[in-house]
Amino acid sequence: MEPVASVNRREFLAAGLGTGLLINWECQVTAQEKSADLDPKNLTKGNVPTPALLLDLDLFESNVKAMAEHCQRAGVGFRPHAKTHKCPDIAKRQMAAGAQGISVATVPEAEAMVWAGIPGVLLTSPIVEPAKIARMISLVQRGQRVMLSVGHAREVELLAEAAATANVAVDLLVDVDIGDRRTGILPGQPAVELAQFIEKHKRLRVRGVQSYAGHASHVVGFEAREKVSREAMGKSVETREMLNKAGFDAGILSGGSTGTYNIDSTIRGVTELQVGSYVFMDIDYRRIGGKSSGENYTDFQHSLTVLATVVNATHSDRVSVDAGTKAIDTTTTYKPEPKGWSNLSYNRGGDEFGILTAEPGSKLPQIGDRLEFIVPHCDPTTYLYDRIYAMRGERVEAIWPIAARREETKRSAG
Ligand SMILES: Cc1ncc(COP(=O)(O)O)c(C=O)c1O
């Protein structure tokens, strides 16, 4: 038989070949296409298949450096949150800048990071499914300094059982709910009691507390944000002091966000920041205003964009790009912004398309033009992609897998 990829799909079906072989045909074509698509040396901003997730390496590196330098100056550690990028290649660069570990929100993220050899992985979300707990216990055995956070006695019981079965010691942070009302135990005495319950179990050890003040991170205006964050983190600081007075070795207080990094780093008792979005930045964060930069938060740069192509220009008042809700998360109130086209406005055009309209009298892009969009919310946009194109100017320097996108984590080459 001829090599299957040399016949087209219709000829192949007309020849009456079986479904099993058809699957084979499709696999081979996909593999061929992939090898060309995925060779960075063939790729530039001009020919990357769109929609594509791009990372401007110069801006990304400056963000990584700025946060690391800030933490060093402030005398606080950082354990950046990989929920933003789900990408071990990015985590490794944060580690190289001085991070003491990487925070993760899901078990696949934890697996991707540990399998990539990253030490100090901290799971910040609760888990109560025995299968997930077993996967985390296996990471504790394989990885270096893997920790989990717990906010409920039921999690403790399940973890204690799994740790006893595997005969492994597990380090835990008490997740303290400081106003977010999503995860964690209440601060003060309830948190101390949970810690006491943890240490009743031979293989579990309390290492400190973690707190995420999600209600503080995006408060508009630095002073207002500072007030909310100080009040929230104060509860966590106090809880950690109570734990230490009660005889625990609560060395860690992990918390904070990109919006509050320069607030939380000045609070005595906070030992490390779980900053996530700073590596990419998004419109949602830009509008919160900075300490000294007025309305726009400019501490970090927009390194992440989605590249899209104009695929329709039938109408005089609009064009369509191939980036709809499957390519850019548009669940926040803010719209994607086309870089260098301040006269254009993006509107949702369904799953596959975005619609661009121009200010009266100004020009629309032409069919085939490529535009880069700054995204409203970086984490859920990244989640839509399998890979990120790491750009040096116009050139693709590397392609990094978003390794922890789905439940079945792919092993990262990195
Ligand atoms: C537990 C936890 N820590 C830290 C962060 C990081 O926040 P940001 O991306 O705003 O820096 C998040 C974000 O949602 C989070 O859920």
Which features characterize this protein?
alpha/beta, TIM Barrel, Lyase, Ornithine Decarboxylase, Chain A, domain 1, 2 domains, 9-stranded mixed β-sheet, 8-stranded parallel β-sheet, 13 helices, 17 strands
Provide the fold topology:
Blueprint lengths: L8 H6 L4 H19 L14 E5 H18 L2 E2 L9 H9 L5 E3 L2 H9 L5 E3 L6 H13 L4 E4 L2 H14 L3 E6 L13 H11 L4 E8 L2 H4 L4 H24 L6 E4 L5 H4 L7 E2 L9 H4 L17 E9 L6 E3 L15 E2 L5 E5 L5 E5 L11 E5 L3 H5 L4 E6 L2 E7 L13
Bound molecules: pyridoxal-5'-phosphate.
The site of pyridoxal-5'-phosphate has 15 residues, from helix 9.
Short characterization:
The protein has 414 residues and is α/β, with parallel strands linked by helices. The chain has helices spanning 9-14, 19-37, 57-74, 88-96, 107-115, 130-142, 153-166, 189-199, 214-217, 222-245, 261-264, 283-286, 378-382, and strands at residues 52-56, 77-78, 102-104, 121-123, 147-150, 170-175, 204-211, 252-255, 272-273, 304-312, 319-321, 337-338, 344-348, 354-358, 370-374, 387-392, 395-401.
